[in-house]
Structure formats: C-alpha cells, structure tokens
Amino acid sequence: NNYYECPDCESLQIEKVPDDLSRYYPNNYYSFSRQPDADIDSTYLRKIKSGYLLYNKNKIAGFLLSIGYKVPEYTTWLKTARVKYDDAVLDIGSGSGDILAHYCKSGFANLQGIDPFLKKEFISANGKLRLLKKSLFDKQAPETFDFVMLNHSFEHMDEPHAVFRRLAELVKPGKVLLIRIPVNKSFASEKYKTNWVDWDAPRHLIVHSVKSMQQLAAKNNFEVEQVVYDSTAFQF
Hints:
Blueprint: E1 3-5, E2 12-14, H1 44-55, H2 59-66, H3 73-81, E3 89-92, H4 98-105, E4 111-114, E5 122-123, E6 129-132, E7 145-151, H5 160-170, E8 171-180, H6 187-192, E9 206-207, H7 210-219
Parallel strand pairs: 3-4, 3-7, 4-6, 7-8
Antiparallel strand pairs: 1-2, 2-9, 5-6
C-alpha cells in the first residue's frame, strides 16, 4: 500500500481506498472481541466511587472505595469533558462497546455506540446502552449528544472534512468532542518510519498530525481545548 504525506498539514493518506473495507474487519478483529451482558448496570458502590472520582461527591465513602484504585483513562475523559450521568454519550466506531460498558457500570444512562462493521447489534435490558450497526452518515433521527468520542476510529475514515461537518451536527453547542488517533510526525513515526506499528495498512486510511487536526477543527467551528499524548509501550 502506498501512502502520501501532505506537505501542508503533515497527514499521511492512502493512495487508494480498498473497494471492500469490511474484509479487513473479520469476526476476530480485536475491537469486536467481547460484548456486554444484557443485564449490565451500575451497582450502588460503583456509583458512589464514580461520583467521588468525577464530581467529588460522597467524599468519605468514595475516598475509601478508591484506595489503591488506579483511575482509568476513560474516567478521566468524562471528568475533563464535564459529562453528567444523564448526558447523551456517543462512541463512533465503538466496536463491541467495551468503553461504554464501563460507563454503564459507573452509572451513565444514555449511551450509544455505532460501528458500520459491528457483527451483532446490542441493547441492554435497561435500555441505557445501545450498540448499533450504523455509519456516522446514517441519519435515522435528529440526534445530538453532550459527549462524542472517536477512540481510534477517525484514522479508519476517509473524507475528513465531511466527517467533521457531520460531527459538528452531532455535538451540542458548547459540548465536547474527543478524538484519539495515532499521530504522524510523532517520535515513534519518525523513528520507525514504514515499520511504525500505527500504519496498520490498509485499515488506517489517513494518519493525521497535530497540525492537520488543528486545521480540521478550525475549519469546522471546533476549538482545540487540549492535546494529550496517551500512547503506551505498544507503539515501540
């Protein structure tokens, strides 16, 4: 697979998008590995702990329940985005909904994941969590959300300007969009070049840079609030 690097925005783009992308997302693809239980829900103690970690409530009980607990990244995202328990949350490219399942267990009640390559749709018994086989551009209902996430799915999409225009329709004014991606022009991409693990050809259609993301945000009425480098040792 050939890729080209834009001299202006520093993103990498595949020369030709495969005709049938679904063949590169088989049943054993990692993001489809485990689906939540139908009766998934929060427990009393878990909600006390999440209330303390996110909103500084139930301070004594929450503190005791959190001793020795390493706060996961997906909890930090909610705190940074100031998400409330009843806020509408959308995960685009959710796979089997692992992150949303954690949110459901923590007490969040309006959770939706969409993925065009999802093998089996899922709706929890309490209706708090829905996983739908659906594209970002499927417009079945006029929905907007308080918190929208793309956890390593944006690099699997072409037409980034069209994607951002659609995201601008989905994110409520003043609310938060989280996009997590591999970053071109990072230390690892420069060191390993074509052996960099995050090429992941041909699934990764465009590997963006910080510069390209800033340009996309500015052209689509988003403001970059924070850039966080959250890579693990996997990239090395």
